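FORM 7B: Structural annotation worksheet

SECTION A. Query
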Amino acid sequence: MLLGKLQTHEFAHGGPSFDLPWPPARNPWRLEHFTGGSSSGSGAALAAGLIPASLGSDTGGSIRGPASFCGIVGLMPTSGLVSRAGVIPNSFTFDHCGPMTRTVEDCAILLQAVAGHDPRDAGSIACEIPNYHGALNAGIKGLRIGALRHYWEEDMPAHPDLKRAMDAAIEVFTKLGARIEDCRTRPMQDSYDTKVVIAESEIYSIHYDNLKARPGDFGRDFLGRVLPACLFQSSDYVQASREHRRIIAEMQPLYQKYDVLLTAGFGPAPRLDAYKTANFWQKTNVFTPSNVTGGPSLELPAGFSNGLPLGMQVIGRPFDEVNVLRAGHAYQQATDWHTRHPQLAPGAPQPALTPKGNEPVAAQLDAATRDFVLRTAQRAGLKLNDYQAAILLETAPFALAMAERVRKPRDRAEEPALVFRFPS
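SECTION B. Predicted structure
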């Protein structure tokens, strides 16, 4: 039963956009700032105290981004644990549905209600569902935690306040008896390239008929993310899927050595009207590696910067939500970040937003590349006006570079991640 409908980004992907029939959600901590996306209304409503719990979808951070910016808890469960039936697809490969709440305990309660096999979802996995809530209070003494420090110090250098918050969080876990040491995976950019080539190809195919027939009905930000996928070749999609399989395989030693992994979430939320579509292609995302590896990732509040929330992630082995939730709950029992609430004034006017600076910027393309991009779009059946063509041309160089990066040397027998096998 549908109890309420909250604001999301367009098709759970592009945003914030100011050219849609509905305005973007605002962050209750500071109304001119971003909530994160795409589950933006869920994050805002929870932070504002309007609801006790909500559901979100997560393809590249769409549960955890709003949780981080809004100072709440969000869990991206293991792929296949929670049904996606009835959800408009974004990426068949990377879509997840999961709970968003004020506390880790509430998150465990909601997960208990929604986890389980659903034959209506082809990606749903039949497995035993443990007692998530019952396992919360076991403590974390002796828990092995690997800190992915290079994520927030090297790959995507964090705001100084977030760096300090992560150091403080590590101290909390240590005092609670966990054993923590730094560890490494491959750079975040590798996961981001893999995810974007696959996911943008999939969402492009999902909306292809409408992109071809009426591109002007889509928002500027959605077009800036999806249109460049017309440049990806079928071989790029397969090569990215082969890279996807490599990344999953490379995580296995870390899963054996550590019970959970710890890394940063987002820093303080930026202003809504400072958003630029090109950032989607130019900057990596600290949440995306977990979408690629497929295991659970819990985002929870870990501090504040000038009145805006800071977040951190607890990442686990596939289907080990018990340890992820246990670690997050222990941290919340020892801290009070989750108990703080934004001060809202009934009837107060919303601060004015002056969106600017997100007009498509002419890319530095040579004539041959420009011609290739426009001819490829035309061959794909896309009938773009000058403005829509400018949106494509702005981000085309980044998409082409991304496709080039996933074209790595491989053995001819190396399989993609989407190889089908009958269950044993």
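SECTION C. Observations
Strands lie at 53-58, 73-76, 96-101, 144-147, 179-182, 260-264, 297-305, 308-316. The CA atoms of residues 194 and 240 lie 5 Å apart.

SECTION D. Sign-off
Analyst initials: ____
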